[in-house]
Design goal:
With about 220 residues, the chain is an alpha/beta fold. It contains 7 helices and 5 strands, in the order ααβββαβααβαα. The N and C termini lie far apart (about 60 Å).
Length: about 220
C-alpha cells in the first residue's frame, strides 16, 4: 500500500486511496444524506483533508490513549482536536479506531456546516492515518474484524466510506501533522510537521510596517 508524503499534489494523493472497494454487498445502497433545506452550492468546491493519530496508552497513570485530529479545508486548518480517550484500549488498533471514529464525526459535522453555507464539497474527505491495520480494515471491503470490541467504530467508518463521505490512506508518522497533538515532540520535529500551520512573528511584516509609518 502506498504512503502519503509531504507533497500535496492532487494526482499523487489520488493514488493513495482504494477507490475500487465494493461496499454494496455489505451495506447495500448507502449515500450521504443531505439535510433538508440546504441552499444551492455556489462557487468553487473545497477539499477536506483529515489527519488523525492516537498515542496508545500515553497516560502513565490511567493508560488511556490520546487522540489528535487536524482537519483542513483546502489548505486552511479549520478543526484541531486533542483529547484523552474515555476508555482504555488494549492495543494500538483499538486506540486508532477510536480516534478515527471521532475524526469521522467531526468531519461529518464540518461537511454539514459547509453545506449550510452553500459551499460545494469536492468528493469524499481524505483521511490520513498512520496505522496500517486500521487503514486496511476501513478501506478494503473483504477485510474482517476479529475483535468484537471495536466492531461499532469499525462499521461506522466502513459505512461512511461506502456512502462516499471519506476515504482512508496510510501516511508515515513523520508526515502526520496530528502527531504533534498527541505527544511531546522535539522542537525540530514539531516544526517539520506544522511548518505550514504555525505562526511565527518574524514572518509577519504588518506590525513592522505600521511602526515604521508612525515613526516617520
Amino acid at each position: 500500500m502506498m504512503s502519503a508524503t509531504k507533497a500535496e499534489n492532487p494526482a499523487e494523493i489520488e493514488g493513495l486511496f482504494n477507490t475500487d472497494a465494493s461496499w454494496k454487498e455489505f451495506y447495500g445502497e448507502v449515500h450521504e444524506e443531505d439535510p433538508a433545506g440546504m441552499p444551492e452550492p455556489l462557487g468553487n468546491p473545497v477539499k477536506i483533508r483529515t489527519y488523525l493519530d492516537a498515542d496508545h496508552a500515553g497516560n502513565v497513570v490511567t493508560r488511556r490513549s490520546h487522540t489528535g485530529i487536524m482537519i483542513f479545508v483546502n489548505n486552511a486548518l479549520i478543526v484541531q482536536y486533542s483529547k484523552k480517550q474515555n476508555t482504555v484500549e488494549s492495543a494500538t488498533f483499538g486506540a486508532e479506531m477510536v480516534a478515527m471514529r471521532v475524526a469521522r464525526d467531526l468531519t461529518v459535522a464540518l461537511r454539514i456546516k459547509l453545506q449550510m453555507f452553500g459551499v460545494p464539497i469536492d468528493g469524499p474527505a481524505d483521511f490520513f492515518c498512520g496505522n496500517d491495520s486500521v487503514v486496511k480494515n476501513t478501506s478494503i471491503h473483504t477485510s474482517v474484524l476479529a475483535k468484537k470490541h471495536n466492531s461499532v467504530n469499525y462499521h461506522i467508518i466502513r459505512e461512511s466510506a461506502a456512502a462516499g463521505i471519506l476515504l482512508v490512506a496510510k501516511i508515515p508518522t513523520e508526515h502526520n501533522k496530528s502527531d504533534a497533538l498527541t505527544k511531546v515532540l522535539p522542537m525540530f520535529k514539531r516544526d517539520n510537521l506544522l511548518n505550514d500551520v504555525l505562526y511565527y512573528p518574524s514572518q509577519c511584516t504588518i506590525l513592522d510596517e505600521k511602526n515604521s509609518g508612525e515613526a516617520s
